[in-house]
Amino acid sequence: MQGKLGQTIAAPGLTLLDDPHRPGANRSSFLDAEGFLTKPLPLIENGVFRNFLYHVESACKENKNSTGHASRGYSGGISTRSHNLVWPRGDHSLDQLCSLNNRCLLVTQLEGQAGCNPVSGDISIGVQGFLLENGLRIQPVDSITVAGNFFDVLQNIRASGNAYQPELTHSFIPALLIEGLTVSG
């Protein structure tokens, strides 16, 4: 993301907020691990990359101020991490979202977290789910690979669901309709 601050990196209208004050969320807090006050911070706003996350040391290296995102574990030093990532809900139920394209893949599970190159943004990850045609589940799929590029994904999000995924405790992200990924397997 270096050099992309202030640039359009996502589809127009796409907003991603880090909200440390979200009631009931797993990572809500008024202070970070260094005692700095936290505040909601837009990371992407209407498709434009707005902010990096900083703790004191990382902020000093960039001649910036801490954004209140310091984290400390039991065995390590200070690191930077988000609080609660919030993507606004859209207008579509999951069934409606799956009906927007004639043929799509409903991904229900990712197989591991490896598969994204943090430098190039290239993604290649195993998934499980269902093949859908005209909104109907045709067959389950397993051991297939979805590939693409993270920056292309941000540009190719076509619609958002109207409900958050219940098993995610600090990421409030609805189902998304994404076009342009390569599916193999």
Describe the model:
Helices cover 10% and strands 38% of the residues. With 185 residues, the chain is mainly β. The chain has two domains: 86 residues, no CATH class; 91 residues, no CATH class. The strands form four sheets. It has a five-stranded mixed beta sheet with strand order 3-2-1-6-11, with no helix packed on it. A hairpin with a 2-residue loop joins strand 8 and strand 9. The longest helix is centred in the N-terminal third of the chain and has 6 residues. It is elongated and about 50 Å long. The relative contact order is 0.17. The mean pLDDT is 91.
What's the topology here?
Elements: E1 16-18, E2 41-45, E3 48-49, H1 56-61, E4 70-72, E5 78-80, E6 85-86, H2 94-99, E7 103-111, E8 122-133, E9 136-149, H3 150-155, E10 157-164, E11 171-172, E12 174-178, E13 182-184
Parallel strand pairs: 6-11
Antiparallel strand pairs: 1-2, 1-6, 2-3, 4-5, 7-8, 8-9, 9-13, 10-12
Poorly predicted regions: none
Task: Supply the helix-strand structural class.
Answer: mainly beta
Proportion of strand residues: 35-45%
Rg of Cα set: 18 Å
Give average pLDDT, whole number: 91
> How large is the count of helical segments?
3
The helix/strand order is EEEHEEEHEEEHEEEE
N/C terminus separation:
31 Å
Number of E strands: 13
What count of domains describes the coordinates?
2
Main pleated-sheet profile: 5 strands, mixed
Helical coverage, percent range: under 10%
From the spread of the alpha carbons, the general shape counts as elongated
Strand order in the sheet with the most strands: 3-2-1-6-11
